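Let us practice reading a record.
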Amino acid sequence: MQVGNVQCSLTQIQAPTLTGSSGKITIAWKNNSGIGNAKETDKLLLALINPVKNEVITRYDETERAEESFTIDLPHWTGDKVHIYMAFATEDGKDVSDSICYPNILIV
């Protein structure tokens, strides 16, 4: 893949927020379905990277844009700083939005 040639064609996640406690992170966003080509059925793409433990967790096809939040339990990462990437993809996976990155998030 040539990174400079990657093009995203889906409306991006809107107004994301992160909250966390007790080894859990909740990601919330505004349901912007109907703006551009965003649909309620778009699926959240999530990648959590823990460079301290050299581990990656990915999620796809579990949470729809219309749900407006997703919580993941990470008790084994408590005290580590992780990088969180998120985006949306259409149900068929053919179109993907630009991703948003939150680097160095401390899991508490």
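A brief commentary: The CA atoms of residues 81 and 105 lie 5 Å apart.
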